[in-house]
Model the fold of this input.
Amino acid sequence: MPKKVDHEARRREISEALWRIASTRGLDGASLRDVAAEAGISLGRLQHYFRTKDEMLVFALRYINRLAADRIRARIEALDEEPTPREVLRACLSSMLPLDDQSRIGLLVGAAYYARAVHDEALRAEAENGIPQLRAFLTGQLRLAAERGELPPERATEDEAMLLISAVDGLATYVLLGVHAPEAALRLVDLQLAKLFGADGVDAVGEAAGAVAPGVG
Done:
């Protein structure tokens, strides 16, 4: 009886080979033949799963975004049974920083994708889809905090959520470039949350900064 092939697993393996290339030398010079060699399969076998490079790139981008979402979800689920909106925000934002090897590789790959997406409509559409969802989630947490009296209502907006995303994106880039250490970036996230949540949050900065996420340092 012929062996059953898990086509989805094969596509993920090829995507991971592409990530290894992207994280070390970018995507522009990565051909289908290069990816096939990295994955340890023939070019013909790779094209059985992906007919074109663009098709492979879009799948790989969706896959890495799904893993990033899973990482954020796992960090939130690791909190107390009823975490506060601020705790959820911190877990989410810290998961977007390169605090360990897995998140660092993910961000390096993401940077390679986004550099290419500027001139690639299909990749740009994929990149654009994730931000509104993340913004909506963060906005929901800000509004919940306002309802609980933990945040001034005028701060519970989509603009504030977008500012948080932009700040963490910038910090993540600086960590990758060696401008900031991971623990310094996390401290700045805590400082931003303290400013957002007001005077009560300022007293908690020192405690939060000591609770460095796993993998830092």
